[in-house]
Amino acid sequence: MRRAAVDVAATKSSATDVVTQADLASEALLLELITAYRPQDGILGEEGTQRDGDSGLTWVLDPIDGTVNYLYGRADYAVSVAVVAGDPSDVTTWQPVAGCVHQPATGRTWTAGLGQGSSVDGRALSAPASTALGSALVGTGFSYSAPTRAWQGEVVARLLPQVRDVRRAGAGALDAAAVATGELDAHYELGLNPWDIAAAVLVVTEAGGRVRYLDVDGVGLVSVITQAGLEAPLTDAIESAIASSPPRS
What are its GO biological-process terms (predicted)? Predict the structure, then answer.
């Protein structure tokens, strides 16, 4: 579908938050496959699929993570598929048990199983753990809401002098998975949805990385995904930056 053309099917939170025909087709295909093999499981998909199951497990699906990149023909988009135990809508209490992030443009595939480690293209992963904050390459992302983006810009401006540099690729699943491979030392972002990170956080934690969630009053959860040694210093730096530039009501 990407080679043929990209048709915008709808918008969501704003005019810049798009859904393509490929998003809908990808989710429909995933629904068909999962229903055939695991009809007893629940499903939570970004594009509206929501089904309760009776197994205690839920498939959490992002049919295209990084849809704007996909729309523009950039390579930073992925399909993210995970299975979680617990409430699939609450990233702070669920437990991902299996996950896969696939990047169609490059063919790379990250996989993980709870207690079974994680890998990329079959190569076992072990996230680096010794980077100092001042040497850390940190990923982030921004909201589709213009006022929220303005506040996020203030926060990242305060954080930037404390780290090596900041990257913004536009696909949360790929940015989080990059922490497991050492292509980023950390990634933090406000407002990541369950389907954005369900698979990637398992890839990271099974590689020895860390995930923490900061609840910012009036704004929501900031996901902080890091190498083990960066968890405390980066979290402290983000909290300090937010305290210095609190969200405006």
Answer: inositol metabolic process; phosphatidylinositol phosphate biosynthetic process; signal transduction
Number of domains in the chain: 2
Residue 172's closest CA among 117, 105, 103? 103
Q: Name the domain boundary from 124, 141, 163.
A: 124
Whether 1 is covered by a domain: the verdict is no
Q: Does residue 47 belong to any structural domain of this protein? A: yes
Give the residue from 218, 220, 190, 188 showing the smallest Cα distance to 201. 188
Annotated binding site for Mg(2+): 46, 62, 64-65, 196
Q: Beta strands 8-11 and 18-20: pairing type?
A: antiparallel
Binding residues: 46, 62, 64-65, 196
Beta bridge partners of 83: 59, 98
DSSP 126: -
Strands 137-140 and 165-167 turn out to be: parallel
The pTM of the full predicted model, rounded to 2 decimals, is 0.92
What pLDDT, in 10s, does the model give residues 150-164? 999 999 999 999 999
